[in-house]
Amino acid sequence: MTAVLVINSGSSSFKYQLIEMDAETTLARGLVERIGADESHVTHEVVSQNGSEEYEQARSIRNHTEGFAVMLDAFREHGPSLDEHAPVAVGHRVVHGGKRFFEPTIITDLVRINIEDLAEIAPLHNPANVQGIEAAQKSFPDIPHVAVFDTAFHQTLPPAAYTYAIDKDVAEKHRIRKYGFHGTSHKFVSEEAARFLERDIADLNQIVLHLGNGASMTAVRGGESVETSMGFTPLEGLVMGTRSGDIDPAVLVHLHHKANLSVDELDDLLNRQSGIYGLSGLKDMRDLTDEANEGNDTARAALDVYVHRLKQYLGGYFFQLGRVDVIAFTAGIGENSAQVRAEALAGLENFGVKVDAARNEQRSHDTRVISADDSDVTVLVVPTNEELEIARQTLSVV
Ligand code: ADP
User: Fold this and answer.
1) Two domains, one topology: 3-149 and 198-386
2) What is the DSSP letter of 351?
3) 346-357: per-residue pLDDT in tens?
4) Per UniProt, where does ATP bind (predicted)?
5) Annotated binding residue at 15?
């Protein structure tokens, strides 16, 4: 049996998952959160065929290294045994690979320094990823560690798609361009769609909508990302849980001059006080649709903005691709909200998109078709699995 440990590290938390790669099944997953706070919180879930068991504990964890020691204790105490299921490698989710990294990469000292160097353009994410890498390397010193980059799948964007129309010397000096994110998910979902339809991915034009708290859309031609909605950072594009997505950049200048907002306040406004939360006071799409359906006008208006932006991008990607074979919905909202899917695709019959209402309403954890049999475009719901994709890519290089 071959197992891979997948780590997704944030600044005060990390998620882990142990995956058995022959059958591609999860053996255990967990979350260590509030690292550095007085009371940190650990959840360890042991997954088996008969269901899963979850163990929780609260204790003080000062840093990521201590967090990994606690994770190892949880494996020892609750299983599965890491002697029996010894990972052959550790796969790390790394948010920003810049222009340098476009493939899963074995982490050497030099690679780690380069990932750290990219903190200049990904200050929120890359330093936290490096903390996780360093701590994991201490806990697992004898096996390879591999970085899998969120930006990597978008390395195929053509220059016309990734170039912002600003002074090109300024752009070059500061590495300003569209990078795109959620790449691991867009890659997994577009490949899963082709596999599910028993089609060669090279023949398919797809639009993938990853709608979670963060949200992005990607146009995928023949398995390659050719346009994507997130940009230099994960702020651009669609309306998200707390992020604005697209906005006239001059609004920032205006708010700076007229409302005296500092750079940090503007950053907070756009990343944490905007999106459906800024519009409605609600962060969760379930609450937003419930409220909207109960006649709350503010919630309805926020949902309208959300859906309007989805349509705007869908239309753009139709024209960029010229022909669309598949539209695939994924992530928390894409997989679970029949209402958002129905509203996003309403009225597109003239473009060959016809959703079957009953299929769309059916709940399932499996990949499924929700379009009508006579729809030119096949509409799918594809549950994403970023951890499995990271594990696959990790295994591919060790
Ligand atoms: P993250 O970006 O944090 O990984 P997820 O992919 O888990 O996010 O998606 C979280 C979003 O999914 C939340 O807005 C949540 O409201 C939404 N969601 C989850 N289940 C449902 C559901 N049944 N109906 C509507 N939205 C849902």
Assistant:
1) yes
2) G
3) 999 999 999 999
4) 15, 210-214, 284-286, 332-336
5) yes
* Residue 211 counted as an annotated binding residue: yes
Could you tell me which CATH class the domain 3-149 is placed in? Answer: alpha beta
Instruction: Please give the structure tokens belonging to residue 109.
Output: 């000292």
Q: Is 137 in the pocket of ligand 1 (CB under 6 A)?
A: no
332 lines ligand 1 (CB under 6 A): yes
Q: Which segments of 150-214 are extended strands (E)? A: 205-211
* pLDDT tens profile 322-335: 999 999 999 999 99
| 3-state SS assignment for residue 289 | helix
Confidence of residue 218 (pLDDT cuts 50, 70, 90): very high
- Read off the pTM: 0.95
Angle at 148 between CA 313 and CA 42, to 5 degrees: 100
**CATH code given to domain 198-386:** 3.30.420.40
Q: Residue 124's CB: how many other CB atoms inside 10 A?
A: 15
What pLDDT band is residue 50 in, cutting at 50, 70 and 90? confident
Residues labelled catalytic: 150
Enumerate residues 6+ apart whose C-beta is below 8 A from 302. 276, 279, 280, 282, 288, 292
Per-domain residue ranges of the chain: 3-149, 198-386
